[in-house]
Design a protein that fits this description.
It is a single chain. By secondary structure, this protein is an alpha+beta fold. The protein has one domain: 2-Layer Sandwich (Alpha-Beta Plaits), CATH 3.30.70.20. It is built from two helices and five strands, in the order E-E-H-E-E-H-E. The protein has a three-stranded antiparallel beta sheet, with no helix packed on it. Strands 3-4 form a two-stranded antiparallel sheet. The structure holds iron/sulfur cluster (SF4) (2 copies). The site of one iron/sulfur cluster has 13 residues, from helix 1. One iron/sulfur cluster binds next to helix 2.
């Protein structure tokens, strides 16, 4: 199951079949977009996103898609 988080022009899609709650995204995003909810990543405050694409590259399971990356 994929969950989409969208705000303005930014859309982040997280594939919950791939996300295992490893938290690399939580620990790596410079503006703290990600947190864990029941062992799965969730994204909030997308207007703060600086489109650096670190989240996409750091996820060990390829679970994150980003509209800018
Ligand atoms: S880095 Fe990937 S697998 Fe780990 S919590 Fe974030 S989305 Fe899930
Ligand atoms: S692109 Fe960069 S700022 Fe935006 S959510 Fe991913 S890691 Fe955070």
């Amino acid at each position: 199951m994929k969950k989409e988080f969208e705000e303005g022009e930014i859309k982040i899609t997280i594939d919950y079949d791939k996300c295992n709650g490893s938290a690399e995204c939580v620990n790596s995003c410079p503006v703290n977009i990600f947190s864990l909810d029941n062992g799965k990543a969730v994204a909030s405050n997308l207007s703060e996103c600086i489109e650096c694409c670190v989240c996409v590259s750091v996820c060990p399971n390829g679970a994150i898609e980003h509209s800018s990356c």
